[in-house]
Write a structure and sequence with these properties.
5 strands, alpha/beta, 245 residues, 5-stranded parallel beta sheet
Length: 245
């Protein structure tokens, strides 16, 4: 039974040792939290969502069913907007996590995140300015192996945001049209810039207006492509999951 005296933190992991480790971090640094342990998203009931303040999800054991796991967590997230979600994400499913789990109330951390990073994420809550940790971004293999990563590595959401920017839309307009927060749209824009190794807005707009950028983003489409993008612009990001890397 959940106590009314404490705040509630839910830890979800299939690995008992990770549950124990995350629980120890919470117990040592956030003694005011009551800790509830789950192994799957199906165990997160509506009653638990009503009491939870933060939910920490370990995705390191979901590599083989990453898409299914992310879709399930997305579905659970939609049932409450007041909870801070902290996802511990291994690099192979980082693009999918950005596509499905990156929202104004969520934080993405690396599976190699130092303890201080986890503590700071929980302490900052869902008002955290940096919702993708530097440890996760710096661990992106594209940053180390290629000076100019392939543009096709962009997720659907990132390409959608860049295309709308290229058409003259502002962050506020994009957020309103896509039914996302300004924070999420800005994060997807910044994530795309890091993938493309672009360091400023000037470089971003130069790439968008380049022949490669226009081709990747379909900014100079044929009639058929234009119809496809107009349809995509009117949809949320979920229906086109197959477009995610």
């Amino acid at each position: 039974m959940l106590s009314e005296k404490y705040r509630c933190a839910v830890i979800i992991s299939r690995a008992p040792i990770i549950q124990f480790g995350l629980g120890a971090i919470m117990a040592q640094s956030f003694c005011e939290y009551e800790i509830i342990y789950c192994t799957t998203p199906e165990e997160v009931t509506l009653s638990l969502l009503q009491h939870a303040n933060v939910i920490i999800v370990d995705l390191t054991n979901d590599l083989r069913q990453a898409r299914s796991a992310c879709k399930k967590y997305y579905s659970v997230m939609m049932q409450s907007i007041d909870i801070h979600w902290v996802f511990i994400v291994p690099l192979p499913i980082y693009p999918l996590a950005v596509e499905l789990l990156l929202r104004s109330e969520s934080t993405l951390l690396s599976s190699m995140e130092p303890v201080d990073g986890i503590i700071n994420a929980v302490r900052s809550g869902n008002r955290r300015a940096e919702i993708i940790s530097r440890s996760l971004l710096s661990g992106n293999p594209y940053d180390e192996e290629e000076a100019s990563p392939p543009a096709l590595s962009l997720t659907y959401s990132e390409r959608q945001v860049l295309r709308l920017l290229g058409k003259g839309w502002g962050i506020n307009q994009i957020a309103s049209m896509l039914k996302k927060s300004n924070k999420t749209v800005s994060a997807q824009k910044n994530s795309a810039m890091r993938r493309l190794t672009l360091r400023s807005n000037a470089e971003l707009y130069a790439w968008i207006n380049s022949s490669d950028g226009a081709k990747i983003l379909n900014l100079n489409p044929t009639y058929g492509e234009d119809r496809q993008w107009k349809k995509a612009d009117q949809e949320d990001t979920l229906p086109l999951l197959s477009d995610a890397p």
